[in-house]
């Protein structure tokens, strides 16, 4: 089965006050970080579709530049601007289906802690029991359509139908009679992503600052652990030679 990834990065970033795709995170734009993490979950194979607003200026996303191995990256644009993420999903899923991708993990661009295990877990759940069209996490009292796995062809159609009916909430995809949908409960999600870090999205400058601080604290802990284990290695070799 061919798997793909879909990153939505249109939208207005009104609360953030600057385009989220370009936010610097660990020395690279947030879109690049999220693309890299999603590509890791897909083992750098298949297709990554980025759906932008018309004329949106984005960081360089060529696969060579990102060193994403055999992964293909396609940039497409909303054909109905400013109508929200359901349009981005419809356009991106249709593109994936045209390119022979069966299922897609769809994410927003503002999730710096997206976990590869979460993505793989949802694909696995989608492939159970004859296959599901929609696999959507349900956690912290909400359903999360922008952290979910979709069957590209069937859900692209259903999204168009919802748009035509002016039912613009992606969560409605779960209730379509011709789609096989399932939600994944929080306790199962926490087994692969204990803090639900994948769901941590950045909407405001405060969210961004807190995320940067947490990333930097996590980096310090990691560096301290590495230094500690290097010290222990030194002392161990000291014993051996003594
Ligand atoms: N392609 C596309 N993506 C969208 C659209 N609207 C929102 N998104 C993306 O969907 C995700 C969630 O968007 P929101 O945080 O709800 O909206 P936003 O426009 O980013 O921010 P606000 O203006 O503050 O609401 C983000 O990754 C957005 O980039 C859209 O019309 N088209």
UniProtKB/TrEMBL annotation:
Residues 208-242 are annotated as: Disordered. Pfam families: NTP_transf_3 (PF12804). GO terms for cellular component: cytoplasm. GTP binds at residues 8-10, 20, 78, 110. One of its GO terms (molecular function) is molybdenum cofactor guanylyltransferase activity. GO terms for biological process: Mo-molybdopterin cofactor biosynthetic process. InterPro entries: MobA-like_NTP_Trfase, Molybde_CF_guanTrfase, Nucleotide-diphossugar_trans. Mg(2+) binds at residue 110. It is found in: Cytoplasm. Signal peptide: none annotated. It comes from the Bacteria. CDD domains: MobA. Transfers a GMP moiety from GTP to Mo-molybdopterin (Mo-MPT) cofactor (Moco or molybdenum cofactor) to form Mo-molybdopterin guanine dinucleotide (Mo-MGD) cofactor. PANTHER family: MOLYBDENUM COFACTOR GUANYLYLTRANSFERASE (PTHR19136). Belongs to the MobA family. This is Probable molybdenum cofactor guanylyltransferase. It comes from Isosphaera pallida (strain ATCC 43644 / DSM 9630 / IS1B).
């Amino acid at each position: 089965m061919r798997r793909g990834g879909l990153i939505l990065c249109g939208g207005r970033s009104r609360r953030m006050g600057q385009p989220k795709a370009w936010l610097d995170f660990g020395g690279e734009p947030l879109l690049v970080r999220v693309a890299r993490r999603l590509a890791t979950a897909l083992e750098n194979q298949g297709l990554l579709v980025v759906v932008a607003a018309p004329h949106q200026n984005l960081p360089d996303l060529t696969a060579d530049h990102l060193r994403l191995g055999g992964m293909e990256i396609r940039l497409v644009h909303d054909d109905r601007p400013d109508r929200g993420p359901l349009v981005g999903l419809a356009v991106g899923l249709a593109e994936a289906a045209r390119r022979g991708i069966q299922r897609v993990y769809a994410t927003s661009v503002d999730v710096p802690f997206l976990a590869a295990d979460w993505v793989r877990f949802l694909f696995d759940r989608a492939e159970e029991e004859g296959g599901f069209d929609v696999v959507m996490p349900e956690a912290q009292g909400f359903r999360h359509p922008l952290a979910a796995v979709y069957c590209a062809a069937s859900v692209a159609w259903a999204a168009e139908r919802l748009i035509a009916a002016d039912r613009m909430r992606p969560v409605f995809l779960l209730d379509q009679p011709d789609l096989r949908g399932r939600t994944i409960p929080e306790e199962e999600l926490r087994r692969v992503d204990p803090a639900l870090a994948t769901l941590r999205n950045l909407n405001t400058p405060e969210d961004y600052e807190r995320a940067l601080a947490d990333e930097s604290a996590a980096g310090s802990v990691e560096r301290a652990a590495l230094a500690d284990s290097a010290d222990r290695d030194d002392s161990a070799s000291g014993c051996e030679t003594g």
